[in-house]
Design goal:
The protein is of the alpha+beta class. The chain has one domain (4-220). It is 36% helix and 13% strand. The strands form two sheets. The chain has a four-stranded antiparallel sheet with strand order 1-2-6-3, sandwiched between helices. It has a two-stranded antiparallel ribbon with strand order 4-5. Bound molecules: iron/sulfur cluster (2 copies). One iron/sulfur cluster (SF4) binds next to α7 and α8.
């Protein structure tokens, strides 16, 4: 497995067999490591990042009205476990080819103040050509909108890289109308993180959830731009 294109084809095929819905490769050296990785020095020596997406259940999302449902909460947790499992299996396959692989957890906060994980999965996914960052501050993909979750595996296995998608939300403003916190603005750069966070905390407290989740703008975003 030393041909970059053959490596990508082979890894994509197995990931889809394991249940993945999206697969792309980002050139990590073209990304600003200081902003997407914590701490950046831990991840030196990995030129590539594989981004894998899972299409959430549309039927479960359709059950969300004005708050996350118990079914969505369970689904969210199980999908994170599946993505972490795919990351482990892929890492094992890559290590079997005598290359390095570092799977980054799908949902693990390490900076609670700023609500950040080891890495921004959505920025890696954007660089891997899977979509763009939408007004809802989430990755938006053409086939599934924001109805996805992501995991990332860093590697030094030679891989053919994808290009970022040159697209945006265009005239769509569906998510702005449904956000209960008024956090979603015209410009993605103006997304109000604090309002969103406070709404998630309120859901978690009143619904007795162990995670800060919402799902309303995830359901609303069907993509296409
Ligand atoms: S997660 Fe909920 S509160 Fe946050 S932006 Fe989306 S709809 Fe608004
Ligand atoms: S619902 Fe529309 S405006 Fe909102 S993130 Fe998705 S594509 Fe963009």
């Amino acid at each position: 497995m030393s041909n970059p294109k053959e490596n990508v084809d082979s890894l994509r095929n197995v990931c889809f067999q394991w249940g993945a819905s999206l697969f792309g490769v980002a050139d990590l050296n073209r990304l600003n490591r200081e902003t997407i990785l914590i701490p950046p020095e831990t991840f030196r020596g990995f030129p590539f990042a594989i981004s894998i997406g899972y299409h959430l259940s549309d039927s479960i999302l359709e059950g969300i009205e004005d708050a996350p449902t118990p079914l969505y909460f369970h689904h969210y947790q199980r999908v994170n476990i599946l993505l972490d499992t795919i990351g482990l299996l892929l890492s094992s396959a890559i290590q079997g080819k005598r290359s390095q692989a570092l799977p980054i957890a799908a949902s693990q906060i390490i900076d609670w103040k700023n609500q950040r994980g080891h890495l921004s999965h959505k920025h890696v996914a954007r660089a891997a050509g899977l979509g763009w960052i939408g007004r809802n501050n989430l990755l938006v993909t053409e086939p599934f909108g924001s109805r996805i979750r992501l995991v990332t595996i860093l590697t030094d296995l030679p891989l053919e890289v994808d290009s970022p998608m040159e697209k945006d939300c265009g005239t769509c403003r569906v998510c702005m109308k449904v956000c209960p916190a008024g956090a979603i603005q015209e410009r993605q750069e103006d997304f109000d993180h604090l309002r969103c966070y406070e709404q998630l905390r309120a859901f978690s407290k009143t619904l007795h959830l162990s995670h800060n989740i919402c799902g309303i703008c995830v359901k609303a975003c069907r993509g296409k731009g």
